[in-house]
């Protein structure tokens, strides 16, 4: 029984503390300045010289005299567009909820990419996107509903009740530059409805309207950023699983490796392969693009096998070999000759492909 009394006491303290929290929209204070009457200008009798009036702190009369005063002033920090997605930017000196996206993924249509991000974000918000004007790329959402709930005790049960219900509809307009590599997205609030204990209203003040538009735009920007990261991960996985080294034939009909790399790039990186896999360069001809190398099978120590530090071993006989590179469009053919100037057979290349394939892909280098 004591535990129940203690729990109810703590709960009542928490509820009373919550009820005493100030509204964070407005400033706190006595606001005595709002009650003061502006002093009248000094009346100068006729025939006397008017005193000099300093204008250092003069406030123009061209201001909003109907704006809020005192406790009604909204003191929240202005809401901003957060261009966190790659190559996204905002227009300078613009209060509109608008952001520009520049092309990041060359294999994706940027306009369609942004449109899909809007659809996915609205789906997460439990609503859908409709086309209002396909030619001008104007779209509208269905109602997005948000509720704020609180709990109250009835006898021995805790019930949830809805304190506020807020619903919004947004319009999205997509603007594309003629070259198609820059796309802008602008968000505007179309309809609003709020219901709480005081009743229902369709009115929303200018600041809250802007904050709602900025919040929706920032969610879509975050969705675009997520889609970029997902696409980059897919590209990395595709490259990791891609077979960059396959078997083929050179122009003479000899067995060769077909490597998905341009000749100059492969030529400059071959010394890395040689150093890691037991080859030493004896001679080379850059104009003819071949290396003469001596191979000595590396010794794998007991401790290397324990710690996993040893590199895979190429199952070749200790001898001199010629690595001959030739261009094949945007790929390179690698033909390996033995010390008798005879090309290694296709069977031999297949036997060592489990080591040569990953090694000549240079995945650990690029």
Uncertain runs with pLDDT below 50, 5 residues or more? 1-22
The level-1 CATH class of the largest domain: Alpha Beta
CATH arch. level architecture of the largest domain: 2-Layer Sandwich
Helix/sheet category: alpha+beta
Strand content: 25-35%
Q: SSE order in H/E notation?
A: HEEHEEEEEEHEEHEEHEEHH
Computed Rg: 36 Å
* Dominant shape: elongated
Average pLDDT: 84
Distance between the termini: 69 Å
Question: Which fold does the CATH topology of the largest domain refer to?
Answer: Alpha-D-Glucose-1,6-Bisphosphate, Chain A, domain 4
Largest sheet: 8 strands, antiparallel
Helix content: 25-40%
Oligomer: single chain
Descriptive report:
This protein is α+β, with helices and mostly antiparallel strands. The chain folds into 2 domains: 74-240, Alpha-D-Glucose-1,6-Bisphosphate, Chain A, domain 4 (2-Layer Sandwich); 245-361, Outer membrane protein assembly factor BamC (TATA-Binding Protein, 2-Layer Sandwich), CATH 3.30.310.170. Helix content is 28%, strand content 29%. It contains 7 helices and 14 strands. It has helices spanning 2-19, 110-124, 206-241, 263-276, 302-307, 346-351, 353-361; strands spanning 88-89, 98-102, 129-133, 138-141, 144-154, 157-176, 182-196, 199-201, 245-249, 255-259, 279-285, 290-295, 319-328, 331-337. Strands 1, 2, 3, 4, 5, 6, 7 and 8 form an 8-stranded antiparallel β-sheet that branches. Strand 9 (245-249) and strand 10 (255-259) form a beta hairpin. Helix 2 crosses helix 3. The longest helix has 36 residues, at 206-241. The model is unreliable at 1-22 (pLDDT under 50).
């Amino acid at each position: 029984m004591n535990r129940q009394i203690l729990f109810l006491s703590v709960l009542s303290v928490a509820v009373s503390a919550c009820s005493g929290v100030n509204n964070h929209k407005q400033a706190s204070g006595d606001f005595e300045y709002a009650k003061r009457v502006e002093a009248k200008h000094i009346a100068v009798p006729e025939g006397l010289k008017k005193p000099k009036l300093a204008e250092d702190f003069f406030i123009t009369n061209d201001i909003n005299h109907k704006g809020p005063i005192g406790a009604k002033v909204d003191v929240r920090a202005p809401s901003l567009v957060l261009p966190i997605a790659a190559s996204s930017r905002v227009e300078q000196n613009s209060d509109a909820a608008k952001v520009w996206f520049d092309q990041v993924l060359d294999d994706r249509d940027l306009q369609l990419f942004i449109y899909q991000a809007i659809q996915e974000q609205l789906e997460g918000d439990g609503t859908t996107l409709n086309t209002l004007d396909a030619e001008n790329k104007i779209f509208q959402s269905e109602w997005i509903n948000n509720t704020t709930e609180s709990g109250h005790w009835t006898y021995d049960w805790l019930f949830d009740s809805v304190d506020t219900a807020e619903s919004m509809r947004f319009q999205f307009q997509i603007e594309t530059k003629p070259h198609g590599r820059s796309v802008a997205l602008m968000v505007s609030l179309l309809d609003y409805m709020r219901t709480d204990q005081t009743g229902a209203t369709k009115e929303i003040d200018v600041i809250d309207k802007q904050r709602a538009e900025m919040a929706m735009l920032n969610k879509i920007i975050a969705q675009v950023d997520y889609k970029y990261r997902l696409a980059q991960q897919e590209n990395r996985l595709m490259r990791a699983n891609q077979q960059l080294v396959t078997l083929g034939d050179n122009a003479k009909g000899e067995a060769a490796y077909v490597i998905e790399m341009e000749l100059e790039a492969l030529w400059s990186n071959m010394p890395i392969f040689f150093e890691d896999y037991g080859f030493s360069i004896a001679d080379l001809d850059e104009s003819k693009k071949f290396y003469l190398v001596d191979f000595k099978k590396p010794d794998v120590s007991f401790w290397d096998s324990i710690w996993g530090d040893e590199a895979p071993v190429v199952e070749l006989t200790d001898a001199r070999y010629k690595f001959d590179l030739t261009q094949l469009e945007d790929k390179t053919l690698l033909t390996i000759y033995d010390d008798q100037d005879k090309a290694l057979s296709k069977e031999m290349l297949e036997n060592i492909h489990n080591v040569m394939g990953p090694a000549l892909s240079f995945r650990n280098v690029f």
